[in-house]
Amino acid sequence: MKGLLRDHFYAAYANGKSLVRILFVAGIAIVAVYPKEALIRYYMLLCLVMISFVALPAFGKDGSCRWERYKLTMPVTRADIVRSCYVGQFLWMFAGILLSGGAVVLSVLLHGFLFDRSTDVWLIYVMGVSISLFMGAIFYPLSCLCGEEAKGASLVGSTFLAVAIVIGLAMLWNFLFGPVMAPAMILLGGAVILLCALAAYVGSFFLTVGIFRRKEY
Amino acid sequence: MDHVLELDQVTKTFKRSDFKLDKVSFSVPYGSIMGFVGENGAGKTTTIGCILNTILRDSGDVKLFGEEMREADTDLREKIGVVYDGNNFPAYLTAERLSGIMQGVYRMWDEPLFRKYLEDFKLPAGQKIKHYSRGMTMKLAISVALAHHPQLLILDEATGGLDPVMRDEVLDVLLEFVQEERHSVLLSSHITSDLEKIADYITFIHEGRVIMTASKNDLAYHYAVMRCRESQFKALDPQDIIAWRKRDLQIDVLVADGQKMRRRFQDVVVDHVPVDEIMILLIKGEKGEGAMLCR
């Protein structure tokens, strides 16, 4: 697994090192130059979602060379290959959390707490992480089924679907318990959305393994 | 004889292209180099895919080191080194990073040995693979395949596109590899001259079927082509004819025992021919009754 995780990291890094640098510089610029609550909120969401744009296409990257086929000849199982992608994306998402968290901490140190409510930071993270997890949950099996040629479309499609699902779940929670909720209910709602995203992510892993086991190179 | 690789009646059908691998059977003995030759599209890569489980065969058995290799049998894959034609590795990697990946995959990965191969082949470790020439990428692939101490090397058209000097270097590496008693090589190629240089056995495949397996020595010293006139051709025992092909003024007949044919037909020219001429006769010629006896 270690080797496959390294492979995933190098593939993702080759994909998006420029994007990661831009996000890093943008974070500093927003916090230092224009510290508005809305901008920081969007930046946090952007970090979490855009990081997935870096990590997800690493699955089957460079299929034009023999690398994807070559990996199957190595002493790893197909489940290991899929697992490395899911774990790899999770780790990149964690890096996104750290990046956006760094921006929040910096803004608090420099300008004080800019958000309206204490629950806002939690909700932004919930939204961002959930979108990222749903993206992965949809993208991996779709990409496996549709192949290298449709990877771009799979990525865009899974992003839109993920955003729609998270907004849908939030609206459902508001409908059931809103519109005015105690902070505990808001936190619980966020946790429920996050758990749904995690469950979808885990379930998607088994689906992708099943599809990948029948793939031929 | 002990066999490192055994294929028995392996079949695979591709519905879209209507291509079928049809009951492919052959074996690779320990300590030998098996040449696997056929024209483009004959089924060499498909056969290798069925061996390595990158293609899921419909039926038949494949045994590696005496065992059926299933997807979960990672221990067996530790002992196999693979080299494909073209770019085996992503262009954004360097040899150093590739080594880091392989170290985390192969239990027997030998970093000092890999470094030695990089030095011997003059491959820069820190340069991205996208800047490597074709020969360099092939040498890198061979270095990676050898650096985890495999027992079986499988090369799929690995020498295609290389210049003669590079091909010679690669073939020397393979010859050195089989010096060890339990090391074996399966080398698929349509460059028959490479196989003539190093192979111990050659299997011919055409349109998804194995048409002949023979030792290289037999092909070189026993198999021969008779250049017959029509009347001489009619006088041949059908069981002696492996394949035949009508040319303008003669009929070329492939036989298994050239010496026997020389003694019997002293007025007929009997030539020992290179492997590619045998291959052309087998593929383009008509099959004789003797063909069944050679498989």
What does the secondary structure layout of this molecule look like, with pairings?
The complex is a heterodimer of chains A (217) and B (295).
Chain A: H1 2-33, H2 37-55, H3 67-72, H4 78-111, H5 119-146, H6 151-177, H7 183-212
Chain B: E1 3-14, E2 19-29, E3 33-37, H1 44-52, E4 59-64, E5 67-68, H2 74-78, E6 80-84, H3 95-103, H4 111-120, H5 134-146, E7 152-156, H6 164-177, E8 184-189, H7 192-198, E9 201-206, E10 209-215, H8 216-221, E11 224-228, H9 230-234, E12 243-246, E13 251-255, H10 258-264, E14 269-271, H11 275-284, E15 286-287, H12 290-294
Parallel strand pairs in B: 3-8, 3-9, 6-7, 7-8
Antiparallel strand pairs in B: 1-2, 1-4, 4-5, 9-10, 11-13, 11-14, 12-13, 12-15
Please give a structural write-up.
The complex is a heterodimer of chains A (217) and B (295). By secondary structure, chain A is mainly α. Chain A has seven helices and no strands. Chain A has helices at residues 2-33, 37-55, 67-72, 78-111, 119-146, 151-177, 183-212. In chain A, 43% of the residues are buried. Chain B is of the alpha/beta class. Chain B has two domains: 3-217, 3-Layer(aba) Sandwich (Rossmann fold), CATH 3.40.50.300; 222-294, no CATH class. In chain B, 34% of the residues lie in helices and 28% in strands. Chain B has twelve helices and 15 strands. Chain B has helices at residues 44-52, 74-78, 95-103, 111-120, 134-146, 164-177, 192-198, 216-221, 230-234, 258-264, 275-284, 290-294; strands at 3-14, 19-29, 33-37, 59-64, 67-68, 80-84, 152-156, 184-189, 201-206, 209-215, 224-228, 243-246, 251-255, 269-271, 286-287. The longest helix of chain B has 14 residues, at 164-177. Chain B is elongated and about 70 Å long. Chain B starts with a strand and ends with a helix.
CATH topology term of the largest domain in chain B: Rossmann fold
Any guess at the CATH architecture of the largest domain in chain B?
A: 3-Layer(aba) Sandwich
How large is the count of helical segments of chain B?
12
Low-confidence stretches of chain A: none
| Count of the separate structural domains of chain A | 1
Most residues in contact, chain pair and counts: A-B, 29 and 33 residues
Q: Estimate percent helicity of chain A.
A: over 70%
Mean pLDDT level of chain B = 92
Give the helix/strand class of chain A: mainly alpha
Shape descriptor of chain A: globular
The tally of beta strands of chain A, per DSSP, is 0
Gyration radius over CA of chain A? 18 Å
The CATH superfamily of the largest domain in chain B bears the name: P-loop containing nucleotide triphosphate hydrolases
What share of residues are in beta strands of chain B?
25-35%
Q: Compute the separation of the termini of chain B in Å.
A: 17 Å
Topology as H/E string of chain B? EEEHEEHEHHHEHEHEEHEHEEHEHEH
Flag low-confidence runs of chain B.
Answer: none
By CATH reckoning, the class of the largest domain in chain B would read: Alpha Beta
Order of helices and strands of chain A: HHHHHHH
Tally of extended strands of chain B? Answer: 15
Shape of chain B: elongated
